[in-house]
Design a protein that fits this description.
The chain is an alpha+beta fold and about 280 residues long. The chain has helices at about 25-75, 140-145, 270-275; strands spanning about 120-125, 135-140, 150-155, 165-170, 190-195, 200-210, 235-240, 250-260.
Amino acid sequence: MCPQADDPTEIVTKRPRRAKSGKISVLGVLGELLITAGALVLLFLGWQLWWNDMIMANSQSDAASQISQDWIQQDTSTPEPVPTTDPVPTTDPAEPSAEPAPVDYGAPMVATAPANAQAFAVLYVPRFGADYNRTIAEGTGHDVLNSNRLGIGHYDGTQMPGGVGNFAIAAHRSAFGGGMHLINELQLGDAIYVQTADGYYTYRYRDTEYVAPSQVQVLASVPNNPDATAVDRIITLTSCNPLYSTAERIIAYGVFESWQPLSAGAPAELAPIIAAQG
């Protein structure tokens, strides 16, 4: 007779182990290949959307800084006189005097649109960062928007900087330098500066709307009202939305505030930014 166990749970029935198969599963190999391929795709997307984007952004910014400095150095016009209006004194001598009256330089100069892919302006948006600047070139094709030296395109047929009507431009939201990556962060009154070989044009951000890609009426001289006659000077920034998608377009509008020739120097907020780039 078998000895009686003190605890039945101590009796364990052992099964014979199966011999390991030396065959490799086809499905297992295919699964590993798919996992590897997926990892490579993710790495490529990371490179395209982050690393390559950062490299292109730096290259576009460097090119814009060079164009800006070239215009400044080549400017041979006579420096504009400073305002002659005396500041309004304050009653408290401890307080600083009022700011001098701004100079009125008259109607802004409006250049003729250049040939396709030719650079003609530099965009500055302090809200996007003190180191942000991009070259604006004619056209919105891949030769402009995907360029490592340009990045922002001017819609053919819309106004040039300072012109009455709609100065409309476009850039990628992500990838290829992401020229308008932060367009959704603009706040009412934010400055939007455009520098050309003639001078500096200051616009102020007004509002944003989201539209279908087919709604080209936003590019009209009077946005969304193509039959109206333009009386205002407007800038329109366009990009894709949401990030990493082309489902719709984000449209940011700004209104013209002032213009000053290159010889007068940059607007106060913009001057240190341009000096740092030089």
